[in-house]
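Need Dienelactone hydrolase family protein's 3D structure for a figure. Predict it.
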Amino acid sequence: MTTITTRTVEYPADGLTMIGHLALPAGADRRPAVLLGPEGMGLSDVERRRADALAELGYAALAFDLHGGRYLGDPEEMLARCLPLLADPDRMRGIGHAALDVLRAEPRTDPERIAAVGYGTGGAIALELGRDGVDLRAIGTVNATTTGRPGEAARIRCPVWAGVGSQDPIMPPAQRNAFTAEMQAAGVDWRLTVYGGALHAFHHPPVDHPAVPGVGHHPQHARRAWRDVVDLLAECLPVTEDLGA
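Structure prediction for Dienelactone hydrolase family protein:
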């Protein structure tokens, strides 16, 4: 296993002190980087492990925070914060830009080679960064076929990949169709993968607290979705070894 280093990073966003998780590969050279967004519950060890896995692949990775260091395991509390957030593109962009600034400021990050990958609310934030015209190499989302303000998808400057469960009641076929219509009309290089039989948050391991209806883990598709994310990064943000480092 490749040696990596990790540390927590604090930064302001959305009126809160966010606490992210930064994972870096071995070495001292600049690396392509990935901004990683969590589900609506917030940053947990699931996303921290994913950031670590990306660092093992050679990326600088920042798993960003949504709720000021809190994990919202109560569905009602989570929805009370996330639903207004998802309805406010400017707030989502503010959270995304604050985390992106932290990642760009990291000396190991190549600021010209950054991708955004997100799950649920974190995926919606990744898409809003694209709609805001941020220079990203790729956007990857799971459970986040969210649409934006009319016409703003034309500002997306990179390929977009979205994964969703076929039985996801939160992102149903009508929502998926609206998302793909938006991407197509904007001329985005987009892809959609539908995982047969999977519910919302199918990628997330089972939790030991109540969840909103329609959520369920699907181990096989979770592995496939992770491979699809890694393949997207390999295509759009390849890791190249610096032999002089």
